[in-house]
Amino acid sequence: MKTAYIIDSTASLPEAYQDHPDVYQVYLSIHYANGDSLRDTTDPEALQRFYEDLPKEEEIPTTSQPQPQQFYDIMDDLVAEGYEAVYGFFLSADLSGTYQTAYSVMHEYDDRLTVHVIDSKSISLAIEALLDHTIRLQEAGASEGEILDHLEKMVDQTALLCCFEDLSYLVKGGRAGNASALIGKILNIFPVLEVHSKVEVFAKVRSRKRVYATIVDEIEKRIQDYPDGVERLIVLDALNPEGVAALEQAFTAAYPHIRVEKTYLTPVIGIHAGRDAYGVIAVPNLPRRYQAN
Prior knowledge:
The chain is of the alpha/beta class. The chain folds into two domains: about 5-25 and about 65-155, Rossmann fold; about 160-290, 2-Layer Sandwich (Hypothetical Protein Tm841, Chain: A,domain 3), CATH 3.30.1180. The protein is about 35% helix and about 25% strand. β3 and β4 (about 35-40) form a beta hairpin. The relative contact order is 0.16. InterPro entries: DegV (IPR003797), DegV_C (IPR043168), DegV_domain_contain (IPR050270). May bind long-chain fatty acids, such as palmitate, and may play a role in lipid transport or fatty acid metabolism. Keywords: Lipid-binding. GO terms for molecular function: lipid binding.
């Protein structure tokens, strides 16, 4: 079955998937007080400039989801090119309207394509991992039912713990969840946050070293519950070299047989995370019967 995949720009797609002929991206944007706009990007130089300039902004920029026309254009192209099925993978529905827009538009094509729209309940490469597993499972001969069952479990299991050192960005953007309770109430507290559907406070500690230790300890506990093991560990970066290096070193030492990757949070996520955010995603492995493929 000829299958296409749609994914949003916050997924930090690596080049291999950016150039994949069956993978299509929709783009979120950020908007500055002076009227300028920036399309979400993974370009390293643009990301460096974005995070260096972010603290200088007198007013925190706003973000916007992809316009519905982006989805209509892609879906029309898929029909014209003879695709029979499409999977969509998107930023958590509790953090953005992107999933709902995708769901509404893509399912208008149910009479022409088999449509599956997945709420990642997460951000960044946790979204890309869903795409990656779907493509690899299809190549290995997994059935549609097996793929959808695996994706459901993967969304539920994938762990993301992080620290946003300046929570004002998250609160002003309306994505704080219970993290808003920390603002202005407690000094010298570093919140360890968990992203699963919403952004919630997992723990409150009093030093960066305790942040690193808390993230490492909890990720190790989560990994023990992965029935098929862990495949990837991804360190998230919003221009915080100290935090990123500490997590990279800790996980590389603890899991020498696991890929430890690093990726920047894209600008749309960075607007809410703020500069100096960092964290880790633990991606579950493929089902054991497909791991050799």
